[in-house]
Amino acid sequence: LVAVGTTPKVTLTSGIRLRNHLDQLITILSQAGISLAGLACLALVPFGLPGLWLLALVGLGIPWLGGAWGDVWILAGAALLAELLELVSSVGIAKRTGAGRQGMWGAFWGGMVGAIVLTPIFPPLGTLLGAGVGSFAGAFLLENIFGGRDRAGSLRVGKGAFLGTMLGRILKLWIGVFQLVWLWWSIWFLH
Predict the structure, then answer these.
(1) Does residue 62 contact residue 71 with C-beta atoms inside 8 Å?
(2) Most buried in the list 24, 50, 52, 64, measured by CB within 10 Å?
(3) How many other CB atoms are found less than 10 A from the CB of residue 185?
(4) Average pLDDT over the chain, rounded to whole?
(5) Digit-coded pLDDT (tens) for 39-82
(6) pLDDT top residue among 17 and 185
(7) Which is nearest to 99 in space by CA: 143, 135, 69?
(8) pLDDT tens by residue, 115-142
(9) 175 pLDDT exceeds 90?
């Protein structure tokens, strides 16, 4: 207790304790901010936005909090792997069903247009479904019109484009969940 009219005595140890509490508070607030930013980045993935790359950038906070740079490289490698898997699955499945160059371009542009059109109608699921339906429609139409395929062949290519797009997005989301868990583990438990 301090008597009325006197000034409290500040000692060196009380200043150090205050500094330690402030450091802890700043660390916890930083961890919470990075955690929420990572979650927001993952939410961008269904919209076809580069959320996994942004999540890797958010991971730059790991070394700032005392973590290892290797964790940042793991996040960046996972983002690259997700992009490659999305590309390989969508192109690979469409190719397996007989898609030509026209069908591939139709799937690509149709997926983009479908995602844009259905996003405001059914957010956020509309983006994922729009990409799949758009890929189907684009591949079907361009294979039918410019690829010289009959309706059955174009339908088969459209189905392959749809499945490939959906599989690619789902794989990308799962890798994003891995990235988010890795980020959280790195900032909350590994330093």
Answers:
(1) yes
(2) 52
(3) 12
(4) 88
(5) 999 999 887 788 999 999 999 999 999 889 999 999 999 999 99
(6) 185
(7) 143
(8) 889 888 887 788 888 989 999 999 999 9
(9) yes
Q: Token pair of 122, please?
A: 């059914």
Q: What residue has token string 């010289």? A: 148
Q: What are phi and psi of 60, to 5 degrees?
A: -65, -15
Report residue 115 as tokens: 């995602």
User: What's the CA gap between 20 and 25, in Å, rounded?
Assistant: 9
d(CA 28, CA 30): 5
